[in-house]
Design brief:
Elements lengths: L5 E4 L9 E3 L2 E3 L13 H10 L3 E7 L10 H14 L4 E5 L15 H10 L7 E4 L2 H10 L2 E5 L13 E3 L2 H10 L2
Parallel strand pairs: 1-4, 1-6, 4-5, 6-7, 7-8
Antiparallel strand pairs: 2-3
Length: about 180
């Protein structure tokens, strides 16, 4: 059986707008704060139509921190699943101290999805806006695409491409096909 290709996507800052406080990104707290970024729906549709499996891999540690409830995160995820051709969400609700394999920069969620869906990680991409996304993608063996927002936090040590949006990331992916 031929292995499939996938695009692993971070959620906040890739699909929807992240809220910036003191130069750092934060997720919407509820569905009312959700704003899908320009060009995202079209990019997701194009990637889906090109045969990629689309899997959102997102850290949501505010649940573990008691700042937001799991139902609010799931409501946002379910809405995005409804309005876009996304195959699945792999959501980690843990904080760093929980030592969860699914929490980026650990590659557990990507590796689990690869085993579950027979995905060729070397032919796949991780698209994100933080160093954790790039490291998880690299550790899983994926190509990485960093959406650069110049957050006031550590930047990735290396990445395959640096872009300004998911639409630009999609152009890079199609340029390699």
């Amino acid at each position: 059986m031929k292995k499939k290709r996938a695009i692993f996507l971070d959620r906040d800052g890739v699909l929807n707008r992240a809220f910036i406080k003191n130069g750092r990104p934060y997720p919407p707290k509820n569905i009312n704060e959700l704003e899908i970024l320009p060009g995202v729906v079209n990019s997701i549709e194009a990637l889906h139509d090109a045969g990629f499996r689309l899997i959102v891999v997102t850290n949501q540690p505010d649940v573990a921190r008691g700042l937001v409830d799991i139902e609010s995160v799931e409501e946002i995820n379910n809405y995005l699943l409804h309005v876009m051709k996304i195959d699945e969400f792999k959501t980690c609700y843990h904080d760093d101290s929980d030592l969860c394999d699914f929490r980026k920069p650990n590659p557990g969620a990507l590796i689990h999805a690869a085993n579950e869906y027979s995905i060729d990680l070397r032919a796949s991409y991780m698209v994100g806006d933080r160093w954790r996304d790039m490291e998880a993608g690299q550790r899983a063996g994926c190509k990485t695409i960093f959406i650069q927002y110049n957050y006031a936090e550590p930047q990735p040590q290396s990445t395959t491409y640096i872009v300004k949006s998911l639409a630009e990331a999609t152009e890079k992916i199609f340029g390699e096909m």
